[in-house]
Amino acid sequence: MLKQLLPAIRATIILSILTGLVFPITVTIIAQFLFPKQANGSLVYNKTGQIIGSQLIGQQFVQPQYFHPRPSAAGTGYAGEASAGTNLGPTSAKFILGQLDDKNTKDIDKSFAGIKQLSENYVKENCLSSTELPPVDAVTRSGSGLDPDISQINALYQARRIAKARGLSLQTIASLIKKHSQDRQFGILGEPRVNVLSLNIALENLDHE
User: What is the span of the domain harbouring residue 177?
Assistant: First the structure.
């Protein structure tokens, strides 16, 4: 029995050292050397050195003078420790109407906004015309609930509200969106997008120029 036990103990110790110490330390050193910003959370600082967010994690903006992020289902919203989507299917009444029970259309969950309510709110706050439909990312939640980006069309639809709230020209806001737009990853993955936090910081910098 001892002959079988000793190799097992040695293997456990060696594997624990390799996978618990050597591997994570090696990966950390490589990441800090090659990608220091990303390895440290892509944190964003203000002029006083205070952390105001991360380029990788969305956060809530509700004031009319700022770009608003994609809706979130992570905890109370954009909670990194509760990253998750709704797991609701496209035929779910709660997903569409914000209802508690898919089989009981009279039972409304007022704490959960469905696509219908999100669409109505988006159209109202951004003064969309009857021919302008809200972008998909404005009325659905991402799988992580932490999406830091919105689509270009989403940002452009919000530009009119922001221009009015800040007393700026629509062209100024549109130029800012274009300047901060990112192409598809590797040219094929996803859609052209803009980072909400970066846009809002750029807006604040415009006010101080």
Answer: 42-83+133-207
pLDDT per residue as tens digits for the range 42-94: 888 887 788 888 888 889 898 999 999 999 888 778 888 888 878 888 877 77
Residues forming beta bridges with residue 57, ordered by sequence position: 54
For residues 27 and 65, state if they share a domain. Answer: no
Supply φ then ψ for residue 189, to 5 degrees. -95, 135
CB atoms within 10 A of CB 95: 20
- Are the C-beta atoms of 175 and 163 separated by less than 8 Å? no
* 3-state secondary structure (DSSP) of residue 54: strand
3-state helix, strand, coil in the chain (%, to 5): 45, 10, 40
Residue 30 and residue 52 in one domain: no
- The domain tally of the chain equals 2
Cα gap 116→98, rounded to integer Å: 8
Same domain, 46 and 33: no
The answer to whether position 112 is within a domain reads no
Gap between the Cα atoms of 196 and 30, Å rounded: 29
